[in-house]
Amino acid sequence: MKKLQGAHLRKPVTPDLLMTPSDQGDVDLDVDFAADRGNWTGKLDFLLSCIGYCVGLGNVWRFPYRAYTNGGGAFLVPYFLMLAICGIPLFFLELSLGQFSSLGPLAVWKISPLFKGAGAAMLLIVGLVAIYYNMIIAYVLFYLFASLTSDLPWEHCGNWWNTERCLEHRGPRDGNGVLPLNLSSTVSPSEEYWSRYVLHIQGSQGIGQPGEIRWNLCLCLLLAWVIVFLCILKGVKSSGKVVYFTATFPYLILLMLLVRGVTLPGAWKGIQFYLTPQFHHLLSSKVWIEAALQIFYSLGVGFGGLLTFASYNTFHQNIYRDTFIVTLGNAITSILAGFAIFSVLGYMSQELGVPVDQVAKAGPGLAFVVYPQAMTMLPLSPFWSFLFFFMLLTLGLDSQFAFLETIVTAVTDEFPYYLRPKKAVFSGLICVAMYLMGLILTTDGGMYWLVLLDDYSASFGLMVVVITTCLAVTRVYGIQRFCRDIHMMLGFKPGLYFRTCWLFLSPATLLALLVYSIVKYQPSEYGSYRFPAWAELLGILMGLLSCLMIPAGMLLAVLREEGSLWERLQQASRPAIDWGPSLEENRTGMYVATLAGSQSPKPLMVHMRKYGGITSFENTAIEVDREIAEEEEESMM
């Protein structure tokens, strides 16, 4: 007995309730996953990854077109207003969820297991988008290789794929410098190169008869998936280093294209067309809806990429600052891209002698037809073409990294013991599976399938997911509790601006977007081709499937509980016992000892006071616990 007492004097004993699971011997506990997940290895990894994820192809080929068709410079008013109401708050909410829990889009719903179906819906949406998004990267690679020549192949007519309607649009001009030809009845070489050579769309009779696989596109798609796999091979440790190049180099190329564009004759004509304010457009609801849609899709909210990236942060990373850097940087990049695009389109319209609105297009038409045609009019055209498509490649890859990392992280967080040690193999299997599913996009009629996926995979389904997430966090989990979590993580609570947006403005805006998209529904089309009814139905079912995952997840969560229906709903909506920061040293206040195998938090706080060692974080946590206890007492009275 004396020997034992002497031993106690020599070495203080930690009370059992204060022992960490690692101190408790060989206990098989599902604890401390964050240590296995990996983290960003550099201070800028997370920030650059978010910038690369948000700044994508849409900034180049959608924003400029949306701006000039919706009031030019006046479009910036609803754009920045919607950024403040919808973009910044939802961006910060998703980052906060990921960083606080260090969990992916599925496991993060420990916050309220009733809504885990929203995480599954996210995965379905991001999976479908990743399949066709990499096909766009394959097209970019195709054009990139085609630019490695002294004469661009879409510069002249007379090739085997050209028709008699092909016209180089460089005929003799009249005294006013205008082409005396009816351009509407002709086709540019770049348009026939895109449709008849790259896509070979004349080999397809429609979406139901896609035709044969185009092996050159098939190989480009394979290369795209190989690049993506190699860059995410080691998770965020490898992709976090790649983004130092892929997130910054596009800005250098964009600056070069901008400088070259504004020095061209007629450039000001295009810029004036792009930015001239037409304030009467602001009276139209369509303009405000378009601004909200641009913000919503450009920032990538609801796809799970932001949540996934934030889950690899340290617990006290200043995501509040990062939110403003990324969202405002994304907006400024879109505006700069508009200058680079429309300065060249202004030059092109002057060369062709047609108004700017006749050469301006959005989406693939801008990237693969109009801009390549403009490149042929410049000296050293292969050089500028290569730069443009290399910029598109780096812009696209960043977003694709995020899509794949989201899927891999979500599934490995669900099955950590089986998949984390074999994460590279699992990533490879995902890439192979998605490559095989994407092979239909490499057929003669692959563009029809790509348009269908683009129109429906992330349309109303994505809005439903984001509305559900916003309401589940603020209404079910509770805005006060969520703000306390952020306080524990960042040292301050979100202000009135964020709370008002989360509770009212953001969900209301998204609901208006959802209603508008349903009321103004238009069937898919590609050029003059109209999709058959069965294809439209397939697309609608694609969107509905992601929506149906939410009630399906609710049903499963309720069936796992016991008691009456109301009791089951209450139990399923409460946070799981192990919800909170993944690392034990970050679990203070109400989250102390709520990991598997730990004791309940109330006795633990008593022992902490008895044995000392309470830090400033724990003092804050005690205050938070007191606030919660007071609220619970008030609600029971």
Unreliable runs: 1-35, 171-181, 597-616
Oligomer kind: single chain
Morphology: globular
- Strand ordering within the main sheet: 1-2
Approximately what portion of the residues adopt beta-strand conformation? Answer: under 5%
Radius of gyration over alpha carbons? 28 Å
Q: Report the major sheet.
A: 2 strands, antiparallel
Protein name: Transporter
Disulfide bonds: 157-166
Binding site for Na(+): 52, 55, 59, 298, 330, 395, 398-399
Subcellular location: Membrane
Care to describe what's here?
- The chain has 637 residues and is an all-alpha fold.
- It folds into two domains: 501 residues, Up-down Bundle (Amino acid/polyamine transporter I); 58 residues, no CATH class.
- 64% of the residues lie in helices and 1% in strands.
- The chain contains 26 helices and two strands.
- A two-stranded antiparallel sheet has the order 1-2.
- The longest helix has 34 residues.
- The chain is globular.
- The relative contact order is 0.17.
